[in-house]
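PROTOCOL LOG
Step 1. Enter all chains and additional molecules of the complex.
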Amino acid sequence: MSQALLPGEFADLEPYAAKWCLPTETQRFAQRMASTMDEMQSFYDAFFPRAETAIQYCEKFPLDDMPEDAQRLLQLLYSLVMVSFPVEVWRQPHVPDAGAAHIELVLEPHP
Amino acid sequence: MSQKSSEGSGLGFPRPPEGSWTEHYPELGTEPISYEDSISPEFYELEREAIFKRAWLNVGRVEQIPRVGSYFTKELGFAKSSIVVVRGKDGVVRAFHNICRHRGNKLVWTDFPHQETSGSCRQFVCKYHGWRYELDGSCSFVQQEREFFDLDKAAYGLVPVHCDVWAGFIFVNLAREPEQGLREFLGPMVTAIEGYPFDQMTERFYYRAEVGANWKIYMDAFQEFYHAPVLHAKQSPVAARPEVQLAGYEGIHYQLDGPHRLVSSTSGRGWLMKPDDLKPMELLTRSGLFGAWDAPDLGKLPAGVNPSGSRWWGMDSFQIWPNWVILIWERSWYLTYHYWPTAHNKHLFEGNLYFIPAKDARERLAHEMAAVTFKEFAMQDGNTLEATQIMLESRVVERFPLNDQEILCRHLHKVAADWVDDYKRKRAQGRNR
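Step 2. Run joint prediction.
Step 3. Record the structure below.
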């Protein structure tokens, strides 16, 4: 078995970690556009009920001194935000009526 | 401005005694307007000189150059130029045209000459022949100086650009001699927000987009919210409800001051809404388009924020001439937009979201939710503008009616025309002298 990416109590989410633990919004947006609705729905359904527990886990640490596995869990939460628009609102990966519009996030806070 | 008390229930905010915001400013007129100023290459050429090379332009914030030698470059497509903004040894922020005095090479760039860059240095060194410039712009070293003919280094400093700072925002003015100082240019309505804790809001999300529309078309999109219940209807369960669609949109307060303009508006108050009216992710993160619900308390705000004193206040959008917007949210964050024209039908859009730095992962996630929601909206807006530009250029229709909620659009196009007329008049006078 490959090495765990997430804290132990979130082992059930490991199947989603490799795909969705991404450090930048640009990567998360690209992953969303490259995913099917089934993939995102499955990730959302598995993670959303556990998300409040994940937030509680992450907020125990100072933001500038988080263990790597907790940082990846926070990235997974960012990805949940990212897929929430296709899943909860659009019913498709891309923003309707946005066509080829492209907005690049040049600079973002870390983590 | 004479105005009744700001009582209202979401609709029916008091208007000026003239009956409408637009008629309160009679110089605006009420007739349909032309968008020729947004599709004409000739008008764009005039705007470059009359507006963008004469007005004070915000290019960033002092936090971007925190230390002596910190610098950033800014591409100014309208001037076909680039500037470098740097903090000197004396702490003063200065701006220079980004050109080496020897053979005209771009002085500061990294890898790609068209891309902006930032960093820190003790002096600027040209990549081409190694000429060096101090942080105050003076030329301090010429490679093989003895090979030149009577070269006086003191006469070969970097070309300065007028530069000044207000409330931590850095401005430049490309005019040989600006007609107004920065503070006078900004005027009382804008400077009345001085004291807002911009300097504390250093957690930044910086977006860029190339948009296939005239810069004023995008400004128009974000200076009226008449479009919001329609274009963004699918974004939330509430907005999709028929009664919300029918109710439409009404701003709390509109105000003009010289070339600048303002709209104060309500915003969503998620923490007061029924769960069924919210997206599950909004409930989880306690955040959304209008910011994190559990916002830090900023104490008493400057008088210029929520200038009408409305209890329904959700945000102020300051449209600062010519191409800059500061949008202050009731939930203790702000954002800025910049629209940098690159052609009559193209511009570079920049959006910056600024928060008080998150103290833990929960706050950071709330900021992420606000930022992602912002982008979803902005993408819908951006694409619609290209559709507008395409059809305006057909010139099939040449006069367009604007309603009272679109007063700021009317004002922007009038100010653009006024500045171009003023420039033409002064140019003609200069020739006749």
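Step 4. Note key features.
The beta strands of chain A are 104-107.
The helical segments of chain A are 14-20, 25-33, 37-58, 68-90.
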